[in-house]
Amino acid sequence: MSTEAVDDLTRDAFLGGRLHLFQPRNGYRAGVDPVVLAASVNASPGQAVLDLGCGAGAAALCLAARVQGLDLWGLELQPLYADLARRNGMENGVSFNVVQADLNVLPEPVRSARYHHVIANPPYYRPGAHSVAQDPGRGVALSESETPLGDWLAVAARRLAPKGYLHMIQRMDRLPDMLAGCVGRLGSVEVLPLSGRTGRAPGIAILRARKDGRAPFRLHAPVLMHEGMRHDRDADSYSPAIAAVLREGQALAWPTD
């Protein structure tokens, strides 16, 4: 991320104004995905949560806005985004312990800690698979760079406490990589696809897996992000479930049947 991007920040409202985040105007900017990821996490007050690759803190702080009293940690490779995450925690009155470090070179106290939940919104694209803006921070955020997706899953599994949960959001075409990364590490795997509209193939999926879990694999029906077959009016068309997540900070319920 360039110095100019850091100096030129916006202050953006999330969760219907319940949360405000400073973000670079021209660098990587959090959208809907980290908000939906946070809504999918079944955390309880007092539990420890680690956000791998936390960026400016969108997912972790959205979760903290819904669940009070978390022991909240973030790990971020890029120093300037780590600084923004700390600033955003203070801005929103949330105790957010952000560590600037490489995923595969974890410092103390993260290396020796165990967490009830690990959440992750890893880069979506393999190196060379997608053209990104020239801003280097955006490029690192969107592309795998030096850290394969399997490493994210391996690190998450090691950091989880027994029976702890991983929640990860990724492109649907990376689902085979996510499932492969769970083998021998995590069980009770569930996948919740997110589809833009009725009749469209899901483009994004949330994976939930549990340390020491033994339940069979479950692939749930897609959650619809928008109502209708197409966008045909000058307004957003979020489905009721997604609107409640984005505007009210509500949880995104996992199917139980």
Q: Tell me the span between the first and last alpha carbons.
A: 44 Å
Instruction: Specify the number of helices.
Output: 8
Which fold name fills CATH's third level, the topology?
Rossmann fold
- Topology order in helix (H) and strand (E) letters: HEEHEHEHEEHHEHEEEEH
The level 1 CATH classification is Alpha Beta
The shape is globular
- Which residue ranges are poorly predicted, with pLDDT under 50 across at least 5 consecutive positions? 1-5, 130-144
CATH architecture descriptor:
3-Layer(aba) Sandwich
| Estimated radius of gyration | 17 Å
Give the count of structural domains: 1
The fourth-level CATH homologous superfamily is Vaccinia Virus protein VP39
Question: Strand-residue fraction?
Answer: 25-35%
Largest sheet: 9 strands, mixed
Q: Residue share in helices?
A: 25-40%
Report the count of strand segments.
Answer: 11
Helix/sheet category: alpha/beta
The chain-level mean pLDDT equals 89
Core attributes:
two-stranded antiparallel ribbon, 9-stranded mixed β-sheet, globular, Rossmann fold, 8 helices, about 260 residues, disordered N terminus, alpha/beta
In short:
This protein has 257 residues and is of the alpha/beta class.
